[in-house]
Amino acid sequence: MDQSIENTRKHFLELLDLKEVDIRTYSPLSLAFIGDGVYELVVRTIIVHQGSVQVHKLNDRSSKWAKATTQCELVRTIEGDLTKDEYAVFKRGMNAKPHSKAKNASVKQYLEATGLEALVGYLYLTGQYERLLTLIKQGMDRVILEETNS
Q1: Residues annotated as part of the active site
Q2: What dotted CATH number matches 25-149?
Q3: Predicted TM-score of the model (pTM)
């Protein structure tokens, strides 16, 4: 891991008065919980930087990416790019037993979206920020490309 990124991660924990925790002790749903928020922040950051528009349009654009169906599309475009460890985290998240249901997605799509969120949470909590941002951006670009080619 890049030393400056590792220092940033350690400083972040220090500022919040948090101790290092073995990431393997987190349940996949805990990883998905934090991953959901991080994923949304990254998506919103990308959307805001595309230009200043009305807030309801920003919300519409970001809501699209928060849907389980779109997250499922995104993860399918990056699945082949995942390392062995990343894929294991994704599968662990996908195989978790969430206590909620998707509104407009199949159970399989919802579980794949949960797997993506677990992966995002894992990358975030382990300080792999560059990898996290790269995967989300690649996935978004690929989904948009598939939509324009359809």
Answers
A1: 36
A2: 1.10.1520.10
A3: 0.90
